[in-house]
Design goal:
The protein is an all-alpha fold. Helices cover about 60% and strands about 0% of the residues. It is built from six helices and no strands. Heme C (HEC) binds near residues 64, 67 and 68.
């Protein structure tokens, strides 16, 4: 008996459907995650405030230079030059406030301080 339960053509179509389904799911998850992130009131407030680079730099030298170096060129922590090329504003904020990458501590700057720090980091 050569009767096959699934014809090769059906199998390919099924695979394509599963593949499209997975792409769709991934898009929904990414968009959902992004919407969730930008609905965070703290992040929203930081992004709405104009940052002051020199105040950001002063704060950096007090809080961050011990690990990242006075000019952010890296000591214990990595160099932060051009960090804005691989981290969005939102991930930079989260890097500072989340404490998810020890030994880097969890900082709690108020929104204006965070906005200042962000504009300093983006100019590196
Ligand atoms: C106790 C040491 C320490 C201090 C203090 C510290 N960091 Fe870090 N930081 C690290 C380490 C270590 C990493 C790498 C973490 C990892 O990715 O595992 C890091 C990573 C980062 C990154 C991500 C770099 C990248 O290339 O993705 C940013 C941005 C950053 N720090 C900013 C700051 C800022 C701003 C401050 C001050 C508010 C600060 N850090 C204070 C140790 C420190």
């Amino acid at each position: 008996m050569t009767e096959q339960l699934i014809q090769p053509k059906d199998a390919i179509q099924r695979l394509i459907l599963i593949f499209l389904g997975m792409i769709f799911l991934a898009i929904v998850v990414i968009v959902g995650w992004y919407l969730h992130e930008i609905s965070d009131p703290y992040i929203n407030e930081v992004l709405s405030l104009p940052g002051d680079v020199s105040r950001g730099q002063a704060m950096f030298q007090i809080n961050c230079a011990g690990c990242h170096g006075l000019n952010a060129d890296g000591v214990v922590g990595p160099s932060l030059h051009h960090v804005q090329k691989h981290k969005s504003k939102i991930s930079l904020i989260q890097q500072v406030i989340s404490g998810k990458t020890p030994p880097m501590p969890e900082f709690q700057p108020n929104p204006q301080e965070m906005a200042d720090l962000l504009s300093y980091l983006e100019g590196l």
